[in-house]
């Protein structure tokens, strides 16, 4: 089957990462290692993951007219992501400040900058669009008006209305985000559960769950983005939902084995072979 043509509408950031022995508590200061700058942003991460999964992929994003913006677009293009629809903004390129503890868990603060200026091109012709909420909701609403299938990673939580969420073909959230939503209004919702895998819900009813395979997690940043890309593309292929869920869970687990949001991006073939070996 021909891989679906995908577009990812979302954020493109510089990740500034600091490793610590443990995450700080409220009001607490801890000392960390040297800061490391890496390409990131949920949109860029998901676009790279989708391209690595085997689909022709456009990224629709906005970066600054600065060196960081040029660096991010160059990195994406070098890995096969189409960046012709990306815009340049007079605002600075977005930055995510990430603290990662030894066990791989993290805390993240995002300064959106140019991400606030994302615009959807009028001539977009794809099989599905994968979106997140590190950008404004207006581009998502515009895509829904065009009746393009939208898979929405509703993160950060609380930025979209229940009406908007209910109009998306698929909604993907983590457990914290799911706790803030009425899943009964969502016909097709996937809830990620970290090391416990993920579950599939239809109109608020859990219909399937898949455990995560054991891995030595190094960095969980970006694992959810790899999961989203894998699930969206398997769904677009018409793969059985439980198989799609399993492949996405394994893809997300694989992503935790290397540092950085874009450090470990599996191919579809690698994940299918891993699952077959575990069966």
Summed up, the helix count is 8
Give the total of beta strands. Answer: 14
- Amino- and carboxy-terminal Cα gap: 24 Å
**Main beta sheet:** 8 strands, mixed
What's the number of structural domains? 1
Judged by helices, strands and strand pairing, the structural class is alpha/beta
Query: Widest sheet: strand order?
Result: 4-1-9-10-11-12-13-14
What do we call the CATH topology?
UDP-N-acetylmuramoyl-L-alanine:D-glutamate ligase
- Write down the Rg: 18 Å
CATH architecture: 3-Layer(aba) Sandwich
What is the CATH domain class? Alpha Beta
Helices and strands in order, then pairings?
Layout: E1 6-9, E2 13-20, E3 36-40, H1 42-53, E4 57-60, E5 62-64, H2 67-78, E6 87-89, E7 94-101, E8 106-111, E9 128-132, H3 138-145, E10 150-153, H4 162-167, E11 170-174, H5 175-178, E12 189-192, E13 198-202, E14 205-210, H6 223-237, H7 241-255, H8 268-278
Parallel strand pairs: 1-4, 1-9, 2-7, 5-6, 9-10, 10-11, 11-12
Antiparallel strand pairs: 2-3, 7-8, 12-13, 13-14
Helix pairs in contact: 1-6, 6-7, 7-8
Observed structural traits:
single chain; 279 residues; alpha/beta; UDP-N-acetylmuramoyl-L-alanine:D-glutamate ligase; 8-stranded mixed sheet; 4-stranded mixed sheet
Structure description:
There is one protein chain. The protein has 279 residues and is α/β, with parallel strands linked by helices. It has a single domain (6-278), classed as Ribokinase (UDP-N-acetylmuramoyl-L-alanine:D-glutamate ligase, 3-Layer(aba) Sandwich). It is built from 8 helices and 14 strands. The protein has an 8-stranded mixed sheet, with helices on both faces. Strands 3-2-7-8 form a 4-stranded mixed sheet. Helix 1 packs across helix 6 and helix 7 packs across helix 8 (268-278). The radius of gyration is 18 Å and the shape is globular.
